[in-house]
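To make this tangible, this section ends with a sequence with its C-alpha cells:
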Amino acid sequence: MASPRPTVRIAVISPEATRVEAAAWRERLAAEIAGASVAHLPIEGLRDTSGSPVHIDVEIAILFAPDSQGEADAEVDALLRSVERGANDPNSISSARVIVVGNSALLHAPHSGADFVARSNATAELVPFVRGTLACATGLRAARRELALLGRVVESMRGELEERNDELQLAALVQRDFLPLALEPLHGVRVTTLYRPLSQVSGDVYHIEQLDDDRIAIFLADAVGHGIPAALLGMAVCRSLETTDRIDGQLTLLGPGETLSRANARLLEHQRATTRFATAVAAVLNCRTRIMRIAVAGHPPAILLRPGEAPRAIEAEGGLLGVFPDEIYTETEIELRPNDRLLFYSDGFEQAFCENGIAQHLEEFGALAGVLDPEQLIERLAARLDNHLGSLHQADDLTLLCVSIESAAAMRAAA
C-alpha cells in the first residue's frame, strides 16, 4: 500500500556555489514547517541529458541563487520551466510557488511568476514568507490546475471553431458558385446585382435566366433566419424553381405566379416537424416589348425608378412560400420605358437604412433616381451602405437586382 503523501512538499534548489547554504535551509525549513517534506535538489537535476526541463511536482520551490546575475537568470528560468504543469509546454501554467533567495539586484530581474527574498533578509523573512504561502497553497494549487484545464479546453474549442470557420468559408464558396452568371444585355435590358451576406453564407438567393430570344426570368428569395439553416433553405427553394414545363410534348414558359405556386407546393411537400418559409418575388420580362409580369410571395414590392417621377412600388398579392397550401399568386403587369430601373431587393435594406426605428430605404432608392447607369447605381448604393451608421455590423443579408432599360438613343444606336 502506498504511503500517504505529505501535507506539502517543498524543494530547496541550489547550484554548487550555494549548496551548503541551501542544505542548511533545508534542515531549518523541515524543522520549523510542520507537516512539510523538504528536499534539497541540485539545479543540474532540473534538466535531462538532452537539456529539456524535468518537471518537479511541489507546492513551493526555493532557489538559492548565486551572486552572478547571468547565472541567476538562467537558473530562475530553468526552475520556472520545471514547475510548469507541462514542463515542455511554453503555454502551461505554473503549478508551484517559486521563491528566489539572492542578492538585492535580483529583486529587479524581469522574471514573471517568481517571488524574491533578499539574502540579507532571509533569516528574518523566509520562514514567515513560506508559512504565509502555505496558508493558501492548497487553494492556489487547485486554482492553477483548473486554469490549466480551462486553457486546454479553450485551446480545443479554438481548434474546433477554426475548423467550423473553414467549413463555412467553403460553404460560402459553394453557395456563390451556384449563383447565376451575369446575363448579356438583351434588347437594351441589363440586370446588375448587389450581394452582401450577413455572414459567410446567406439566406438570400437569386436566379436570373434567359428563357428564349426575347424573355428573361428573375427570381429573388429570402429564407427565414440567418446562417446555415437559412442558406440551405434558400438554396433548396432556388433549386426547386420551375420556369418551363412540357405540355403535350411542347415546351411552355410558365408565368411568375405559376412558378411561385410550384415552389410553394414543393416546399410544403418537404415540411416535417418544423415550418420553414421564405419570401420571394418572381418576374418574367419580354425584353423586346418591355412588358414585365411580376408575382410576389410575401416579399417587399419591386421599386420603379423613372426619370421625373417619384419612386413607385409595384404591388402584387401572395402569401409566404411554405406556409399556405394552394396559395394563389396574382400577377401584376407593367410596361417599362427607356431609362427605367426596376429594383428587386431583400428586406435587409429596410434594416440597413433605418433611423429611429423608421425604415428609410425608399428615400435612399429615390435619391438614386437620377443615376441612369445601373453599374453606377449599384456602386453608389454600396457606398451609401458603407457610410451608413452601423454598416460594419449589418443586421441581415442584403441582395438587390437592378433591371435597367437603355435610353431610346442607345437602343437605336445598337440597332
Q: What stands out?
A: The chain has a mean pLDDT of 83.
